[in-house]
Q: What sequence folds into this?
């Protein structure tokens, strides 16, 4: 496979082996990185594992589990240069119909794991004087989509968490950025897009005239994970076909 990138010798951890995480993990491995992928879903991990990609099963909803998962990845890889956070869940309901457990689950999976895993990754990268952290945010971190209150709050939270980490770790050579996709065709959006009229309605909001594909995120994520992006930190890169322009 032809690749634009050379990640030879790079040790990368990708949290979340779903549509986007697995695609990014594969792209990193095809660019010669050694990659560990974390996911709660064993079957998904089995699909993701290949040459250069090792899977570790982990439910990332507690600080202890996140600490252990990062320690295991560092042990398997022999260090850590890149951390990509691509774990996420959504549950679309109006605010007045959102129960506590939905709010708490989205906070834990989308935002708390971003803090717990990012902190553990930073603890390895900062003393080492090099690191690249990339969060999968969302256009929902900026726009006020109805029925997205907990999800939007977690993505806005990820953006600010990322900015503070970026500021604190910049002098140590560790950059922290986010890629914010628009609607992308993965399991996260499959059922929603299958509703009558929903796909056409979503497509009509995108100036590029189509929804995103996981492959649309690999270039943006790999750029921010690469040595070439050394002076870019604290940024949200929208990869949304122009969705946030309108
Ligand atoms: N697909 C989109 O339209 C879209 C748009 C904007 C942002 N994003 C973001 O991109 C990231 C990746 O999303 P995706 O589209 O690949 O979704 P996906 O549903 O395909 O993958 C998410 C993965 O997270 C894993 N996961 C869920 N809970 C977990 C837990 N407790 N512990 C460990 N793993 C857990 C799931 O098993 C799944 O493999 C998420 O942060 C998502 O919010 C996606």
A:
């Amino acid at each position: 496979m032809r690749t634009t990138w050379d990640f030879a010798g790079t040790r990368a951890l990708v949290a979340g082996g779903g549509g986007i995480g697995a695609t990014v993990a594969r792209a990193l491995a095809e660019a010669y990185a050694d990659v560990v992928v974390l996911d709660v879903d064993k079957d998904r991990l089995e699909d993701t594992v290949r040459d250069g990609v090792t899977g570790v099963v982990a439910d990332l909803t507690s600080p202890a589990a996140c600490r252990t998962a990062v320690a295991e990845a560092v042990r398997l890889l022999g260090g850590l240069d890149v951390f990509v956070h691509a774990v996420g869940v959504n549950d679309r309901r109006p605010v007045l119909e959102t129960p506590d457990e939905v709010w708490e689950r989205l906070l834990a999976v989308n935002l708390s794991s971003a803090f717990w895993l990012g902190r553990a990754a930073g603890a390895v990268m900062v003393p080492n004087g090099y690191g690249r952290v990339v969060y999968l945010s969302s256009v929902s971190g900026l726009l006020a989509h109805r029925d997205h209150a907990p999800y939007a709050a977690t993505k806005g939270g990820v953006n600010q968490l990322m900015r503070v980490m970026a500021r604190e770790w910049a002098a140590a050579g560790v950059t922290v950025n986010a890629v914010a996709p628009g609607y992308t065709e993965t399991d996260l959006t499959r059922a929603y897009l299958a509703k009558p009229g929903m796909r056409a309605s979503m497509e009509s909001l995108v100036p590029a005239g189509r929804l995103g594909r996981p492959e649309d995120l690999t270039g943006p994520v790999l750029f921010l994970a690469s040595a070439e992006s050394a002076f870019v930190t604290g940024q949200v890169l929208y990869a949304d076909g122009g969705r946030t322009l309108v």
The mean pLDDT is 97.
